[in-house]
Design goal:
heterotrimer; A alpha+beta (480); B alpha/beta (420); C alpha+beta (371); A: 480 residues; alpha+beta; Uridine Diphospho-n-acetylenolpyruvylglucosamine Reductase, domain 2; Uridine Diphospho-n-acetylenolpyruvylglucosamine Reductase, domain 3; Alpha-Beta Plaits; 5 domains; five-stranded antiparallel β-sheet; 20% strand; B: 420 residues; alpha/beta; Fumarate Reductase Iron-sulfur Protein, Chain B, domain 2; Rossmann fold; five-stranded mixed β-sheet; four-stranded parallel β-sheet; 52% helix; Putative FAD-linked oxidoreductase (chain A)
């Protein structure tokens, strides 16, 4: 064992310091298997102190690292840095405090998203952000990537539900960001930290806001003979002034996959399915449901189902949430994309994706959060066929550029990670990126935390050769 | 997932494994369903991690011995199969891989002897009975024995129940509605002989006549799931011969055995009897599913209300998809209140011979299950598998909180007899 | 004040020029929060009202993009014509506050209760950093996870991280009907208890405010008009049918006037201070506060306080309660800059993360009021 590693062995007992090939191989990828990298070691801290010591070790030896939860990132966000350290936070998975009266939960980063709602359920409360990975993904990972879900339009993303975080900075310092209040004064440091993709440090304690569980849900499943009609239905719902908690569309391929996976009972002949969900106070939901019924009835749906109970609602959602992974049944390989377009451009975007799909000769399944214009095209390919992966990647790239050209974003909720860093310049100018990079270096002078993610061509820091940078003068960064 | 497994050189089993690896998209939905991941929280002890490891070994990138400790820790509970949205046939992968790997393994002489002991004892009721009697005496010396030998002793009951020999034929009561063949199971014949007797009486009560072929052998599941393919094939061949064709179904009242029989199709991949084995597997049913399909003769209501927790055996719920049927049977008894166990999808740690081979993890899971059951406040526990039965009973005992335990069919039997 | 130090850019390039040209500058919008927009010695004031106007607004998108100097009133009027609103309900609109000033001060109003505060609705931002560069963060769509969340960082930044020039917000449809019920309690404890219960209930409020003298909860409902009567009835039942002498129902024009008045935060002499708080700390703070005007907003998460005494005293009081505050304005405005060392009072939460990020955005210390 190299001397640096044996120093790490003084922090961790052998069973929590993984160095054998059989132990490292399973950590080489997250849910984006197109990328693989073998870490130097994996450590499994159990305390904040161990995290601090580990970060200190990384800083001393200039070893880049990535903090990892359940490894469900679809953008390669938790991909190890080759030869770097993986800090697996799965053992820091305690619920530290649940305060139903104040409606907050304090958890460690390895705590699972869905478990927050499960713990809060006896008090009539829940944790709103619901990424499809919620039975698996951890709060730490959700925080780092500002995870979204199906209910973002109305309730926002992870960032809108995190009140505070205790963070170990890449320098080893511990800071408390945010508080227990919904409000703050001074710059929103916590807002900057959430979604920074692990580039600014590791959250070791997270304070989450809980909401009262809606009294009533009204979940409608409408089947259409074209994607366009489903898209128009969404526009009509929005125009009616209703604000549903979720509006989801799945196309024919996605329906087929989801149905094969969970037997949700979806109408199999539909070209598009629309799920609309209202939730809230019973009398209000009942009134809104009547308006929604009118809108849907006029939208050209050939079949409309309303979930009669919690089981039927769960079934409708189960199919939707399993859709990504279920596409594995239709194709040996696929890429999940995550772009955003202005809602009114959805139809245009889908047509263009259809055209690109034909041009590339690759099938594309579409699952999307129609309420907020967040597209998830799934590009089906067979990696065994030479050149298909490259074709699929090229197609994915075209879709992202399309999203930007329509005024949208290259990612709605999966983050930039590995996968999209090359597309950052399509969305941001050199000056924008330079500033973000400056912030990153101010917080992490050696760019150790999740090195190689988010920024295009992001390798070791290269300081400009003409004169000291103001940050150097300020003593925030320095050259070796 | 992309792979470079050379299926040509591995042969038909290679195809089976490559197909499973291909289906995995590494999404991680299996993690919360995996008992070893729940206990250890490490990627290599998760289904997704094991698939990655098996792939690397099969591709020749990783030494088998590097991956083996983590493959060994898999309980084979198949909780991940239920959770998997991509439809990865994980059970087929791990069974086949273990069979492929076993001849390539380097095991210590002690480990070999221990495995041989299990394989030579468990499948043979007579030997097992003799061994169990010896084991009861051995309990006295338990503290002196090596760790590995302590675990099996803990699972033995204080006293073995008398086991009157099973008949070859058990007639239906009243008009005959069906004719079935029953697999008697090995361990349960010794440890809980009443499981079979209760099953026979309940079937008779429902107008089902039962043959119990005397030539039957152990189903071979234990051998199959630990990579002893040759041994499993030999046992399975014996059963293919022993079970008659003139029955409506082949029934099992032990989850593990039933699921073992249903895997014969997979076991015989590349063997001449493959087709016959597939056909055999299709005729196998768990007794609870058979009774629900047949239509249960309604038992009389209980004299006093009884709160029963039903424990899902993994090899019923995950391997065979039998979840609702045992519950339906129990609910058909008037006065019986059925309660669900928290974390019900999680394995109890028994998993065939797992609690013998990985006692530490098995014990953690066993205690977790026992505590979850106690949390329900149930007055009795029902399950459909002898392995779960002994595991849960032993852990309840350790917590000094014994709750009466029954096979699902035992509860029905008692209800028909008006004894509950 | 030296008039030479007042610059009124009408283009973004002029903002850049001004930032580069002056060692110290302070952006100012409508000037409604004097404690935040009164310059210190050596600070050039950038009057941002010249950068005004809505740039993009398609009601179907729920997105509005405008220049930072745009008056809130103008934005709200435009949205109202399409049945929409700024869900974070910024205060001081009627007094001339701008979008930029609202974001920089981080101010939300009573209706933040329903969907969230300004941090929850800001989507994108364009600003001039301390190097004089124009940079952009976020986007113009309702969902976006690309790059660092600079829009959120700018909320509450007080002009110290950059000069805001353009902002994008998520907007929502305004409820088709609203009604407000005021319920008075005999004791503060009873009002607090009711507030807790209401906030944990599935009942949904556009506003859930607490006033202390007398202890009063002000509850605003919104939604479909046909559901409102039954919801009001359920609300009364939930509160245990308080007697008519203790309740007041506001509807129609009267209700709208009431909330417009609340949004002015005009409470006479004294300092106006924003105090983020949490419900469990209210009782303790109330024991120390003198009688006066104040309002706890959003189920006890935000206090707007009128403070008649010296700011040092309030600073000490907040410190003793473990709270922070932001002074928005005082009664003798020219005096503010002399008496007030910093508008940020109470507990000091300065930390390394803040120092490092500030240095990255403003390496030459142009936006810091301190030398």
């Amino acid at each position: 064992m190299n001397p640096a590693l044996s120093e790490l062995g003084r922090i961790y007992p052998p069973e929590r310091l993984l160095v054998q090939p059989g132990q490292l191989v399973p950590y080489e990828s997250d849910a984006l298997t197109a990328f693989r990298a073998r870490p130097l070691a994996v450590v499994l801290p159990e305390t904040t102190d161990e995290v601090v010591q580990t970060i200190g070790w990384c800083a001393r030896h200039k070893v880049p690292y990535v903090a990892r939860g359940s490894g469900t990132s679809l953008s390669g966000g938790s991909l190890p840095v080759e030869g770097g350290l993986v800090i697996g936070l799965n053992r820091m998975n305690k619920l530290l405090r649940l305060d139903p009266a104040e409606r907050v939960a304090v958890v460690q980063p390895g705590f699972i998203n869905l478990e927050v709602s499960n713990a809060a359920a006896p008090y009539g409360l829940y944790y709103a952000p619901d990424p499809s990975s919620q039975p698996v993904s951890t709060i730490g990972g959700n925080l780092a990537f500002n995870s979204g879900g199906a209910h973002c339009l109305k309730y926002g993303m992870t960032s809108n539900h995190v009140l505070g975080a205790k963070v170990v900075l890449p320098t080893g310092e511990i800071v408390e960001l945010g508080s227990q209040s919904l409000e703050g004064v001074g710059p929103d440091w916590l807002g900057l930290f959430v979604g920074s993709e692990g580039l600014m440090g590791i959250a070791v304690e997270v304070t989450l806001r809980l909401l009262p569980k809606p009294e009533k849900y009204h979940t409608v499943l409408a089947a259409y003979d074209s994607l366009e009609k489903a898209g128009n239905a969404v526009a009509a719902v929005v125009a009616s002034g209703l604000l549903p908690g979720a509006m989801e569309i799945m196309d024919h391929l996605a329906i087929e996959a989801a149905e094969a996976a969970v037997k949700a009972g979806y109408p199999m002949d539909a070209r598009a399915l629309l799920i609309v969900e209202l939730e809230g106070e019973a009398p209000e939901v009942e009134a809104e449901a009547r308006h929604l019924g009118d809108v849907i009835a006029a939208s050209g749906a050939y079949e409309v189902r309303v979930a009669r109970d919690a089981d039927e609602r769960a079934k409708i959602w189960k199919g939707r949430k399993a859709a990504f992974s279920a596409v594995g049944r239709l194709s040996p390989d696929y890429l999940v994309q995550d772009g955003v377009v202005p809602r009114s451009k959805l139809g245009q975007a889908l047509l263009e994706i259809e055209r690109l799909s034909q041009q590339y000769g690759l099938r594309v399944a579409n699952v999307f959060h129609a309420g907020d214009g967040n597209l998830h095209p799934l590009i089906l390919y067979d990696g065994k066929v030479k050149g298909q992966l490259e074709q699929a990647e090229a197609l994915a790239g075209e879709i992202l550029k399309l999203c930007v050209s329509l005024g949208g974003s290259i990612t709605g909720e999966h983050g930039v990670g590995m996968e999209k860093k090359a597309y950052m310049p399509a969305m941001f100018s050199q000056a924008d990126l330079a500033l973000m990079r400056r912030i990153r270096r101010a917080v992490d002078p050696d760019e150790l935390a999740n090195r190689g993610k988010m920024f295009p061509h992001s390798e070791a820091p290269a300081l400009t050769p003409h004169g000291p940078h103001p940050l150097e003068k300020a003593g925030v960064i320095w050259r070796e | 997932m992309q792979h470079k497994i050379d299926t040509q050189s591995i042969g038909p089993q290679g195809e089976v494994m490559a197909h499973a690896v291909e289906a995995c998209v590494h999404c991680g939905f299996c993690l919360p369903a995996c008992p070893t991941y729940a206990v250890l929280g490490e990627e290599m002890d998760s289904p997704r991690g094991r698939i990655f490891l098996m792939k690397e070994v099969l591709e020749g990138n990783l030494q088998l011995e590097e991956a083996a400790p983590y493959i060994d820790k898999c309980l084979g509970c198949l909780g991940c199969v239920t959770a998997c949205p991509s439809g990865v046939p994980y059970g087929e992968l791990i069974s086949t891989f273990r069979g492929w790997a076993e001849p390539r393994r380097h095991r210590s002489p002690f480990a070999r002897a221990f495995r041989l002991g299990i394989m030579e004892l468990l499948p043979y009721p007579k030997r097992f009975r003799a061994g169990a009697q010896l084991g009861r005496i051995g309990k006295v010396f338990k503290p002196l024995l090596p760790q590995a030998l302590q675990a099996p002793l803990e699972l033995l009951p204080e006293r073995l129940e008398p086991a009157p020999p099973l008949p070859e034929f058990f007639p239906a009561k009243g008009p005959r509605r069906a004719r079935v063949a029953l697999l008697a199971g090995c361990a349960q014949q010794v440890l809980k002989p009443n499981f079979n007797w209760a099953t026979l009486r309940v079937l008779a009560e429902n107008g089902v006549e039962v043959v119990i072929p005397s030539g039957q052998a152990c189903c071979g599941a234990a051998a199959m799931h630990t990579g002893e393919r040759g041994r499993a094939l030999a046992l399975a061949r014996q059963n293919l011969k022993a079970f008659p064709n003139d029955v409506d179904a082949i029934l099992s009242n032990a989850a593990g055995c039933g699921s073992g029989l249903r895997e014969y199709g997979l076991l015989f991949v590349g063997e001449p009897e493959h087709e016959a084995a597939e056909a055999f597997s299709k005729r196998v049913q768990d007794v609870s599913a058979f009774l629900v399909n047949l239509g249960l003769v309604e038992p009389p209501a209980l004299k006093q209300p009884l709160k029963v927790a039903y424990h899902d055996a993994c090899h019923l719920a995950h391997a065979q998809g039998v979840r609702s049927e045992p519950r339906k049977l129990l609910r058909s008894i008037g006065g019986l209140e059925l309660v669900e166990i928290p974390e019900g999808e999680l394995c109890c740690g028994s998993a065939g011979t797992y609690n013998l081979e990985q006692p530490a993890i098995a014990a953690t899971l066993g205690e977790r299950k026992a505590r979850n059951i106690l949390a329900t406040g149930a007055q009795a526990i029902a399950t459909g598998n002898i392995g779960c039965f002994t595991q849960i009973q032993s852990h309840l005992r350790k917590l000094r909180r014994e709750v009466p335990m029954y096979h699902t069919l035992e509860i029905l039997d008692l209800a028909y007899q008006g004894k509950l | 004040m030296n008039e030479g130090l007042l610059i009124r850019p009408s283009e973004v390039a002029e903002v850049q020029e001004a930032v580069r040209a002056h060692p110290k500058s302070l952006p100012r919008g409508g000037g409604t929060k004097a404690a935040l927009s009164t310059p210190r010695e050596g600070q050039a004031v950038l009057d941002m009202t010249g950068l005004s106007g809505v740039l993009e607004y398609d009601p179907a998108e729920y997105v509005l993009v405008a220049l930072a100097g745009t008056p809130l009133a103008e934005v709200e009027a435009l949205l109202a014509r399409h049945g929409q609103y700024l869900p974070f309900d910024p205060p001081l609109a009627e007094l001339g506050a701008t979008l930029g000033g609202t974001v920089a001060a981080g101010l939300s109003g009573p209706m933040r209760q329903r969907y969230g505060g300004v941090r929850d609705f800001i989507l994108g931002v364009r600003f001039v950093d301390g190097e004089g560069e124009v940079v952009r963060g976020g986007g113009k769509v309702v969902k976006n996870a690309a790059g660092f969340d600079l829009p959120k960082l700018m909320v509450g930044s007080l002009g110290r991280l950059g000069v805001l020039v353009e902002l994008a917000f998520k907007v929502f449809p305004f409820p088709k009907a609203t009604a407000t019920l005021k319920v008075t309690f005999d004791r503060l404890e009873e009002a607090l208890e009711a507030m807790y219960k209401l906030a944990s209930s599935p009942l949904e409020f556009y506003a859930l405010d607490l006033e202390t003298n007398p202890a009063t909860l002000t509850l605003r409902l919104g939604g479909q008009p046909e559901a409102l009567p039954s919801r009001l009835e359920r609300l009364r039942a939930f509160l245990g049918h308080p007697p008519d002498t203790h309740t007041l129902l506001l509807e129609g024009e009267k209700e709208r006037d009431y909330w417009r008045f609340v949004g002015r935060l005009e409470w006479g002499h004294g300092y106006l201070v924003k105090v983020p708080i949490q419900p469990s700390r209210i009782a303790g703070l109330e024991r120390e506060l003198p009688a006066g005007m104040r309002r706890y907003i959003s189920a006890g998460n935000l206090l707007y306080l009128n403070w008649p005494d010296s700011i040092e005293k309030l600073d000490n009081l907040l410190k003793s309660q473990g709270l922070r505050g932001l002074v928005l304005r005082g009664d003798a405005e020219p005096a503010v800059s002399e008496t007030l060392k910093s508008p940020l009072i109470g507990v000091d939460w300065e930390h390394s993360f803040a120092r490092r990020v500030t240095a990255a955005l403003d390496p030459h210390n142009r936006f810091s009021p301190n030398p």
